[in-house]
Design brief:
mainly alpha, 6 helices
Amino acid sequence: MNKSVIKRYAANVTKNDIVSFAYKENVMVSDAEVDIIFKAIHFDIDVLLEDPIAYLEDYKDKLSDEVYLKLLEFYNKYKKFI
């Protein structure tokens, strides 16, 4: 999958989508964490796609361990598509 496809998809992701995905993955996510993830997807997508591990590391102290680890797991599972 190429980055432009990911960007088009990401542009349509809502905060509710983030909450629904977290719920589906059995992860409790706070409003602040949803805001961080939403900001990453909508405003920092180029940086996020370029170096996702470094980006996540910058927010590690603002995310619960559970959310941080789930985001890393999600990245590792789908990085082959980036």
